[in-house]
Amino acid sequence: MKPVLRLLTLVLFLSLSDSIFAANRYWVSAVASNWGNPANWSAVSGGPGGATVPGAADAVFFNNGGLGNCTIDGSGTILSISIAAGYTGTLFQGANNISIVNNAGFAGGRFTAGSGNITIGGNITFSGGLFTGGSGNITVGGTGSFTGGIFSGGAGNITFAGNFTLNGTAFTSSSGVLEFDRSSAFTSATFSNNNGTVRYNPTGNATISGISPTFNILEFKGNGYSFNMTSTGIIRVTKSLNLTGTSFYNLNTGTINVQGDISVTNTAAGCAGSALININGAGIQNFTGSSGAGLGALPRITINKASGSLNLFNFPSSSNTFNYIFGTVNAGSSTYCFTNGSASPYTISGSLGLNNIEFIANTNQTFTISAATTLTANGDLTMAGNKRIILNTGKINVNGNIFLTNTSTAGTGTATIYIVGAGNQAMDGTTIAISQNRLPNVTINKTGGTLTMKGNISVSRNWTYTSGTVDATGFNSTVAFGGNNLNVSSAGMSFYNVTVTANVITLLNSMTLNNNLAINAGRLAPGANTVQIAGNWDNYGTAGFTEATSTVNFIGSGLQTITTPGGENFTNLTVNNSGPGIQLNNNTTIATLFKMTLGNINLNGNTISLGVSIANNGTLNYAAGTMYGAGTFIRWFKNALIPNGSVNGLFPMGTATDYRPFYVSAPVAGPTTGGTIQVTYNDATTNTTTPTYPDGAATIQVRKDLNWAVATASGLAGGTYNLDVQGTGFGLIGAVSDLRLTLAASVVGLPGVNAGTTINPQVNRTGLTLANLNNSFYIGSINSVSTPLPITLISFTASVVNGEVLLYWTTAAEINNDYFTIQRSRDVAGWENIQKVPGAGNSSTDHTYSTKDQSPFTGISYYRLMQTDIDGKFTYSQVISVNLGNKLSEINLFPNPATDRVNILFNVSGKYEVALLNSNGQFMIHPVLINGLNTVLNVSELKSGIYFIRIRHDGIQETRKVLISR
Length: 966
Known about the structure:
Elements lengths: L2 H18 L3 E4 L5 E2 L6 E2 L16 E4 L7 E2 L4 E3 L1 E4 L6 E3 L5 E3 L3 E3 L3 E3 L5 E3 L3 E3 L3 E3 L5 E3 L3 E3 L3 E3 L5 E3 L3 E9 L4 E4 L3 E9 L4 E4 L5 E5 L3 E9 L2 E5 L5 E11 L3 E4 L2 E4 L2 E4 L11 E4 L5 E4 L11 E14 L3 E2 L3 E9 L4 E5 L6 E4 L2 E3 L1 E6 L3 E5 L4 E4 L3 E5 L3 E4 L2 E4 L3 E3 L11 E4 L5 E5 L11 E19 L3 E19 L4 E4 L7 E4 L3 E4 L3 E3 L3 E3 L3 E3 L4 E4 L3 E3 L11 E4 L5 E4 L4 E9 L5 E3 L3 E11 L2 E2 L4 E4 L8 E4 L4 E2 L3 E6 L12 E2 L10 E8 L5 E8 L4 E2 L4 E3 L2 E3 L1 E12 L6 E7 L12 E4 L7 E2 L3 E2 L4 E8 L1 H4 ...
Parallel strand pairs: 1-4, 2-5, 4-7, 5-8, 6-9, 7-10, 8-11, 9-12, 10-13, 11-14, 12-15, 13-16, 14-17, 15-18, 16-19, 17-19, 18-20, 19-21, 20-22, 21-23, 22-24, 23-25, 24-26, 25-27, 26-28, 26-29, 28-30, 29-31, 30-32, 31-32, 32-34, 33-35, 34-36, 35-38, 36-39, 37-40, 38-41, 39-42, 40-43, 41-44, ...
Antiparallel strand pairs: 1-3, 66-69, 67-68, 68-74, 69-73, 70-73, 71-72, 73-79, 74-78, 75-79, 76-78, 77-78, 80-81, 81-84, 82-83, 82-85, 85-86, 85-87, 88-89, 89-90, 89-91, 91-92
C-alpha cells in the first residue's frame, strides 16, 4: 500500500472511531460520587465499574443499577441521556455546560441544574422525577413532551425549537424567558409562569392548544407566520402582552385577557388575525403602539375596564373589530390606527374620545362604525394607504386637521365626518388627485377658528355646512363630488373650485364658488337655488346641468369662461363681473331671466339665446355690459307691441371698449306671430366713401364699415318696426342729425329723429317691414365735412419702464387727421400739453404710435390724447393713468433673455394681472389673473425681440423688459 493511501486510511479510521466504538454508559455508583470518575461507569446496567467516562458518542443511563448521587464535575458532550423511573438519586450540574447530541429522557430521580447551560439537540421527554432549574439556559432542538413529574425552570432561559406538549407534569416556567419556536399544547397538568416571559418565536405557523394558561409576560414575535390559539377558555396575561419582531404576524382565534400593559415594538405592516385582545385590567394599563402608523397591529380589541385607566402611547393599532365598552382611556398624544386586516368589513363600536385617529388600507377595507357610536378625534384624522377605504354608518367628530392621503378612487361610505373644532383646522388633500380618498358624509359645524381647505377633497356622500368660518381659497382647494347621488348644503360658506365627477349632485341651497366649476361627468341639479361663481364654468357632462328654476351668477373680477361643448342651458343668468367680463366658448341658452348687471360678454363667435319659445320668451334686465366678439344674440318675441327704446327690444352689442346697442321696437304694430330676432355685431375700423347713395332728399357720403346683421326666424311674422342704434367711438361727429342708419349701399324704411350726443349718438330708423329687418345695418353720414367719422382709436395704453411712462395708441381709419397732442394731468381737472405727434392724414389701415413721458409726476399721472383735424376740429380720447408712487413687492423674472418660457416669482402671495406686450404696445399675451406666488409665460411661439411684461396688483402697475432670443 502506498504511503499516501495508508495515511488517508488512518485519518478515516480516526474520524469514524467515535461512531464505530459508540457505547452505552451506565451509572453504577451506589454512593454519591463524581461524573468524571471512570469507576462509576459500566458498559452494562449494574455491571462492574471502570468503563470510560461518557463522551460524545456515548448514551448515558441512570437506573436502579446505581442509586448514588452524581455530581457533574466538568463540561462535556454526550450522545443522549436517560434517567429511568428506578433511579432515586440526584444529578447536580453545577457550573458545567452539558451538550446532549440526541434525546434526553427524564422518568425518575432528581436533576438539579446549576449555572451551566444545557443543550439538547434532539427531543426531551419528561414523564417523572424532579427537575430543578438553575441560572443557566436550556435549549431543546427538538420537541418537548412533559407527561409527569415536577419540572421547575429556574432563572435561566428555556427554548423549545420543536413542538411542546404539557400533559401531566407540574410545570413551573423559567423566571427568565420560556421560548416556543413551534406549537405548544397545554393539554392537562399545572403551568406556573414564575413571573417570567413566555415568548413565541416561530419558525413556521404555530398553534396554542389545550387548556388556556395564565402568563405573566406573553410575547409574540413576528417572523411572517400565524399563531392559532385553539385552546379552550381564555388566555390570561397579568403583566404585559408584547408584540415584537420586524415581520408580520397573524394572531388567530381564541381570546387573551390582558390585565397589564400592551407593548408593541413590531415594525411590520400587514399584521392581522381573528383573535380577541380583551383589555380588562383593574388598575392602570399602558398600551404602547409601534413607532409608525399601522405597524404591528393587534387583531380584535375590546376595552372593558371596571376601574383604573388605559393610557395610549405612540401608534396603537388594530386590524379587526374594535369594541369599547367601558373604562377611562387617556389618549395623550397618541395616534390610534384602524388598519386593514383579515376581516373586511370590521366593526368599530362604542363611543370613545381619542387623540389622533388614522384609517389605513393597503388592501381594500370597509370600516363599519356602529350606528350609535361616535368616535371623537381630539387631534387629527388621517386616511392613508393605496387601497379602498369605506367608512360606514356612525359618526366621527374631528377637532383637529384632516389629512387625506389615500390614493384609491373607490372609497365611499355612509358614515359622517363632523368637523367641530373650536380652533383652526385644515382639510388637506394636497398629495392626492381628484377622486382619490373619497370621503363619506361631511358636516361642518365649527364654533370657532377657521377651517382651511387645501388640495383635492373628494366627497362621495352629502356635504352639509352648518356653521363656522371656511377658507377654501387661500390654498386653491378643489372639492370633487361623485361616487353616489348626494346632496350639497353649503349656504354660508364658499368653495374655491368644485368638480362634479359622477352621479347626481343636488343642491339644497345656494352654492358660492370663488373660482371654477367643472362638471366632468354626472350631473349638477341646483333645483330652485343660486350658484354664484367667480371663475370659469366648464360642463363636459351629458346633460351635466339640469337647470330647473335655478339662477347662476357670474361674479368674478377676472375673465370668466363658459365652456360646454354640447351647449349650455340656464334658467336664470346674471353677469355681474367687475373685471374684463365673461367669454363664451360654446353656445348658451337662457330660458327665463338674463341680468346684465356689470361686465362685458365676449361671445367669441358663439350665440346667446334668450327664451326658448314664444310662450317663454325670456326677460332681459340690463344695467351695464356689452356683448362683443363676432357672436350672435337671439331673442324670442311674443305677438305683442314693443315700445321704442325698451329693454324688451334691446340687443346690447358692441366692442370691448365701445358700447353700441341695437334696439328693435314695434310701438304701433307688433308682430302677428311670435318668433326670434337675432343680431350679430361685426366690428370694423374702416370707412367707405364710395359709392354715395341717397336717403330721401339727403345723400349718404360716408359710412362706417362696422354693422349690425339682423335676421328673423322661428315663425316671426307681421309687424312694423323701428330701429335705434347708439354707441361711442364712431369718430368725429359734428351733429347727430348728420347720421343715418343705412344698408351697405341703400336704405330701408325712413330716417327717424336722432338724439343723444356727438360722443354717444342715437340714430333712429322707422317704418321697417319684417322683410326689411333681415339686413345688415351701418352708421352713415350725410355731411362728410362736419361729420366725417374720421378716426377710430383702437387702443390707448400707458406703462412704467425704468421711471418713465411709455404711451402707445393704435388707430384704424383716419380722415383729415392732422396731429395728436399728448396731455397730462395730476387730477383730471387741469391738463398740460407735453408732446405733439403728427397724424397719418387720410388712411384706411391701422397705425400705431408711441412716445414717452420722461418726467412723470410722483404718484398718479393721468394722460389723454387730443386729436386735431386739418380743419382745426378736435376730439379727446378716454383718460388713462399710471401710479409711480409705489412699487410692487419684489418680483423675480427669469430667464432673461428667454427662449421658451419666462418664470415670474412674486414675493407676496395675492392676485396679480399679468400681460405681455410687444414694442408697439400690442398684447402678445392678453391679461390673465394669477392667484398665488408664481406663474409661467409660454413665449415659444413669439419672434425674437424686445417685449414688456406688465404686472398689476392692488392698483399698482409695473412693467419689466424681457428679451426673447433664439
